[in-house]
Write a structure and sequence with these properties.
Number of strands: 17
Number of helices: 16
Helix content: 25-40%
Strand order of the largest sheet: 1-10-9-8-6-2-3
Radius of gyration: 23 Å
Low-confidence stretches: none
Oligomer: single chain
Structural class: alpha/beta
Mean pLDDT: 93
Shape: globular
């Protein structure tokens, strides 16, 4: 296929050259109705490019096939059999994948370090999760992806599950042994779904971790806005083989998607694909080299340590995306939450993730020496300000970390039944032993500590309580202060 084409962008250029006009949504009429102050901030061109996909850019029956052509080019570029674009993020895409594979009220093997969007998919679909245990690192207090042996054990215990859903790369940049895991699934004739939201760039450079399709996955979901250069909410499904019903996948996506997709999100995905085929190897070459220099520079700052070897070894993760620079700040003497706040407030820099002892800087092909130098300078300032980070005026650093066994809450109800059943709010101090009716998720990275249908225990409650006091953000909790938790009501 001619990878120099970008059908959606070309059609948009043609639309504007012809000076088409629609008596249709959007009501701003290509920016004509937008007030001057809004236009001054967002730009007139933003609104000029905001068109209906069907009955605007294309005709009412989509006979120009601009979107279909763009999706075919994407699949060809990365070696997948089929690609679907989504304008509602990988949060929607992974739900559609779950529905397509598991149907309603079936079982699905799911790694317990799954994103909150997957739990939302369980609630929406009624699927029963059969949790695959990730590897908990007692020294680092983080999870590594499940091992092939753990996946094999889960299949032995739940052979009737419809498929396996695993997250790789994780938000920390660590990756599962997807090739071995795919082989285990396929020996049983079952599909492997990979939530690869952080891996859109992986097909375009050999020094990056193995892309899910190359490892044999049947379906993967990527977020172009995370590690590519698309707009927020830009996501793509990739499919290969015949273990996933493509018609059902398309139908499930259609059930969930908006009927008014944002053309600019589609077009940006199309343009990014063309750019990566044309220049992606060189762009990522430079990005990887820049990340390695950044890692060395940060490692030289007193009180800071860049995680690498401890993340990738036989009992940890299989691989690591070096563009995800995970920085341990324990030597600074305050939490990662405090460091993230300090960087934002004093240096105007945001980091993608923070926890009780780490911050994460995510690099992309768009970063330059100027941006990484700015980060190094800010981190040097952070280390130097250590005496000024007064513990009396910042959140406490101490977070009570549960043992791995204490984090594995018992599931006694389906997430759907717990979420939609009769519920009540109870004080956190008396919530142990009750069945959770909400998910509670430190965000980012967005991995739920509590899933509806699980039995709360004292260790997890104390972890959340001390985490909140230290600066942990739990935006989906009904009570954001975590003084009370929503639980399944007891029978009268």
């Amino acid at each position: 296929m001619d990878q120099g084409r970008a059908p959606l962008l070309d059609a948009l250029d043609d639309y504007r050259r012809r000076e088409r006009y629609g008596f249709t949504p959007p009501g701003h009429r290509q920016g004509r109705g937008v007030d001057r102050r809004t236009s001054a901030t967002l730009g007139r061109e933003t609104f000029q490019n905001d068109l209906l996909v069907a009955g605007g850019l294309d005709d009412r029956r989509m006979r120009g096939a601009y979107l279909a052509q763009a999706e075919e080019l994407m699949a060809d570029a990365v070696g997948a059999d089929l690609a679907f674009f989504s304008t509602c993020g990988s949060s929607l895409s992974v739900k559609a994948a779950m529905l397509a594979v598991g149907g309603g009220r079936g079982e699905l093997l799911i790694a317990r370090d799954a994103h909150k969007s997957i739990v939302a998919g369980l609630i929406f679909s009624g699927l029963t999760p059969r949790w695959v245990v990730p590897r908990w690192d007692v020294d680092l207090h983080l999870t590594h992806p499940p091992s092939p042996a753990e996946v094999q054990r889960a299949w032995d215990e739940h052979p009737g599950a419809a498929g396996l859903l695993i997250v790789s790369p994780t938000p920390y940049g660590t990756c599962a042994d997807l090739r071995a895991i795919a082989e285990i699934c396929h020996l049983r004739g079952k599909p492997l779904i990979v939530d690869e939201a952080w891996g859109a760039h992986l097909p375009f450079h050999p020094e990056l971790p193995t892309w899910a399709m190359d490892a044999g996955a049947d379906l993967c979901v990527v977020s172009v806005h995370k590690m590519g250069t698309g707009f927020e909410q830009g996501s793509v499904f990739h499919v290969q083989g015949d273990r996933v019903d493509r018609s059902r996948l398309s139908d499930c996506a259609d059930l969930l998607m908006t009927t008014s997709p944002n053309l600019m999100i589609y077009a940006a995905i199309d343009g990014w694909r063309r750019h990566m085929v044309d220049a992606g190897h060189g762009l990522l070459d430079r990005a990887i080299a820049r990340a390695r220099r950044l890692r060395a520079d940060v490692e030289g700052i007193g009180g800071l340590h860049v995680a690498h070897d401890e993340l990738v070894h036989e009992e940890a993760s299989h691989d690591l995306d070096e563009l995800q620079v995970l920085i341990d700040v324990a030597g600074v003497g305050v939490s990662g939450y405090t460091c993230a706040d300090w960087l934002r407030e004093t240096r105007g820099i945001d980091v993608g993730l923070s926890d009780h002892r780490r911050i994460l800087a995510t690099l992309s092909q768009a970063d330059t020496s100027a941006t990484t130098d700015r980060l190094v300078s800010a981190l040097e300032g952070l280390a130097a300000a250590r005496p000024g980070l007064d513990r009396d005026t910042t959140a406490p650093m101490s977070v009570d970390q549960p043992a791995p066994s204490e984090l594995r809450l018992e599931t006694v109800m389906s997430p759907r039944d717990a979420f939609f059943g009769a519920v009540e709010m109870v004080p956190s101090a008396s919530a142990a032993g009750r069945v959770a009716a909400e998910q509670i998720t430190p965000y980012p990275p967005g991995i739920p500590v509590v899933v509806p249908g699980e039995v709360l225990n004292p260790a997890v409650i104390e972890y959340l309580r001390t985490g909140h006091a230290a600066g942990m953000n739990t935006p989906d909790a009904t009570d954001p202060r975590l003084t009370a938790i929503k639980v399944v009501a007891r029978d009268p």
